[in-house]
Write a structure and sequence with these properties.
Blueprint: E1 2-3, E2 17-21, E3 24-28, H1 37-45, H2 55-63, H3 81-132, H4 144-151, E4 186-188, E5 200-203, E6 216-217
Helix pairs in contact: 1-2, 1-3
């Protein structure tokens, strides 16, 4: 093992060791030091390339230290196309693992947000129902009627609201309540489709189409 001196690395002020096993160079770096990702990828790629690869030369040129490599650095002339393709393949492989997980996490977060919006409307309708003795009757499209009745003002002695307040970004141009995908929610009362609830509040879900398996409702 060859240990680089601390004063030989003024650019990053770190203590770093390099050793070899077969055709692969390993770098031991303290946790407090930020590694050079592109250098690491090229060094890993060297494991799968012939021994006469130019990766050692590139890795040494990007390390900003005086650590010597066992091979003669004079044989290095630059980075070959094969080395670049291998590194690009490694990057693509890592991205293929990360992107689906990110999309799934974002989808779950938007589902939770939509369920929260529906739950808030249900709570407001419960207070409205206690004051009026019934829920607002509506069999059309959207939820514009709920915005007017829940936020008000309403000319009625029974109205004790507002039961819910809405921000501008919560509504579309027709004053319908929007879900996380900016699609209007749908409200119906009375309804006979679901026996466990008096009314239905439905979001079209991620595909933005009602009547599909990913619809989100209050039942």
């Amino acid at each position: 093992m060859i240990l680089a001196k601390r004063d030989s690395i003024p650019s990053i002020m770190s203590l770093r060791a390099v050793f070899r096993r077969g055709n692969l160079a390993y770098y031991a770096t303290p946790a407090c030091v930020k590694p050079e990702p592109i250098t690491f990828l090229f060094v890993v790629a060297r494991r799968f390339l012939p021994r006469q690869s130019n990766l050692d030369c590139f890795a040494k040129s990007t390390r900003n230290d005086n650590t010597d490599f066992p091979e003669d650095s004079n044989r290095c002339a630059g980075i070959t196309l094969l080395e670049i393709l291998v590194v690009m393949a490694i990057i693509a492989l890592l991205a293929s693992f990360g992107l689906p997980a990110g999309r799934d996490a974002r989808r779950r977060a938007m589902v939770v947000k939509t369920e929260s919006v529906i739950g808030s409307v249900e709570a407001a309708l419960s207070m409205y129902g206690m004051d009026f003795g019934d829920y607002p009757a509506y069999e059309g499209e959207g939820t514009g009627v709920l915005v007017n009745l829940l936020q008000g003002p309403v000319e009625s002695r029974s109205w004790k609201g507002p039961y819910m307040r809405f921000k501008t970004e919560d509504l579309d141009g027709k004053r319908n309540i929007l879900d996380a995908w900016k699609t209007p929610l749908s409200y119906r009362y009375p309804q006979a489709e679901h026996s466990n609830v008096s009314y239905t509040i439905v979001s079209a879900g991620p595909d933005r189409e009602t009547g599909t398996a990913d619809d989100i409702g209050n039942w």
